[in-house]
Amino acid sequence: MSHARPPLVTLDNAGVHRAGRWLVRGVTLAIEPGEIVTLIGPNGSGKSTTAKMALGILKPDEGTVVRRADLKVSYVPQLLAVDWTMPLKVRRFMRLTGHVDPAEAESAMQSTGVAHLADAEVRTLSGGEFQRVMLARAVARKPDLLVLDEPVQGVDFTGEIALYDLIKRIRDTMRCGILLISHDLHVVMAATDRVICLNGHVCCSGTPTAVASSAEYKALFGGRAAATLAVYEHHHDHTHLPDGRVRHGDGSITENCHPGDGHHNHDHAHGHDHAHGHDHAHDQDHDDQGYLAGSRTDA
Ligand SMILES: Nc1ncnc2c1ncn2[C@@H]1O[C@H](COP(=O)(O)OP(=O)(O)OP(=O)(O)O)[C@@H](O)[C@H]1O
Which long-range CB contacts under 8 A does 45-49 form with residues at least 24 apart? Predict the structure, then answer.
């Protein structure tokens, strides 16, 4: 008889309150092994805060976060505070913190395509090379859950595609769960199983079924790019006020945007337009005017 194991991590209505306001609230999500969940949302919308709750770095002030017992997590943060004047070779950097077996480190560098950089100085790496090294470090620890905060930061478009390919390959070979924070509102990996759009709360979530399919996009970046990346657009029509309350299309103001509030009668945009796989996670009566920008095109 098989016993279904719980997800790697489950957030249920989780929120973090600091300095008199909710940084993010009402986040419900679960990550299973082999699944890629992507968080998108504007700057300050609570993506990193949500990731930190999933990691256990931040405890929720409401709701719950449950992680599997003995969960092994690797985290690649958004910005790494390293003294770049310090001479440090990639091989040494791979094993700088934590217990990483040298053979595992070599194998991770092979699989992420940076083995040839083992003797290079970290400070001389390009943005794309550095991100690959960061991924290699994370992979070498053989995590059950890999949390990547904006992994394509500082990487050009071609490099982004290559990195997304690599992340997909890591998921396919290691079968770890991946929580990925996307820096780009408009583009998420097509390999993403679920997109969760935050704006202080979960605006919407769903399976990405649309990939960049416009003629201009394909002409610029080619069919391969269209197969790797998806574009989402949607409209929100409520505004989050600085004090955490929510102003709705009809001008009314409520304390929050939680399920069952019955206030999602949207008729104005609230600051970010992007499309999404439309499968509202957080309410029954949510009627964001979401739509898919295009349909999936595999090259
Ligand atoms: N410890 C803290 N105390 C008070 N406010 C905080 C704290 N940490 C984060 N914030 C605020 O919480 C909000 C959400 O921050 P978070 O880093 O989660 O956003 P984000 O979506 O990851 O943003 P970005 O895309 O800019 O990285 C921001 O307005 C931030 O300034």
Answer: 45/198, 45/199, 45/200, 46/16, 46/198, 46/199, 46/200, 46/201, 47/149, 47/181, 47/198, 48/78, 48/149, 48/181, 49/16, 49/23, 49/24
